[in-house]
Design brief:
167 residues; four-stranded antiparallel β-sheet; two-stranded antiparallel sheet; 3 helices; 34% helix
Length: 167
């Protein structure tokens, strides 16, 4: 039994180390609270319920000073969800589109067949310098404006069906 307890303790220590490494990677992938000099009206705070989580956000600035904000959640929790978040953020860093529907379509194309049976919900909004906002949703909660839920077509979650279109 002493040998078994030592092995169990060593396994727990390895798992703690792996989760801490995953947490550190996740913190590197998601932008910090200042969003690297982004619009001062955008503030974020990310606090996963466990060491790592499946929620994510990403902010992109267009050449025309528009801002594209993506917020989402990976199904499941823990290490598997956190690793899928890294795939999502990697795809977002390569997306050149600024239309919310095109951003979600690119994410869906990149995730289909790579979610391990899971899925990703996501809401993408493009804020124009003049105040116009375009929103596309992939199975995520509807956004709120002035304390009221906005009516936005839900769309399919990402990674479920190849070639899904978003409005």
């Amino acid at each position: 039994t002493v040998h078994l307890l030592r092995e169990l303790g060593a396994a727990r220590q390895r798992l703690r180390g792996e989760l801490e490494a995953a947490r550190a990677v996740q913190q590197l992938l998601l932008p910090g609270p200042d969003l690297a000099g982004a619009d001062p009206e955008i503030e974020v705070e990310y606090q996963p319920a466990q060491e790592v989580g499946g929620d994510f956000y990403h902010v992109m600035t267009g050449e025309d000073a528009s801002r594209v904000v993506v917020v989402g959640d990976v199904s499941g929790k823990g290490l598997k969800a956190a690793m899928l978040v890294s795939v999502v953020v990697g795809i977002l860093r390569t997306v050149k589109e600024s239309s919310p529907a095109a951003v979600l379509a690119a994410l869906n194309d990149g995730l289909t067949g790579h979610t391990g049976g899971g899925f990703v919900t996501c809401c993408c909004a493009r804020f124009e310098p003049g105040g116009t906002v375009a929103i596309a949703n992939a199975g995520h909660l509807s956004p709120y404006c002035d304390g009221r839920e906005m009516e936005v077509e839900a769309g399919l979650p990402l990674g479920v069906v190849a070639g899904a279109a978003y409005e």
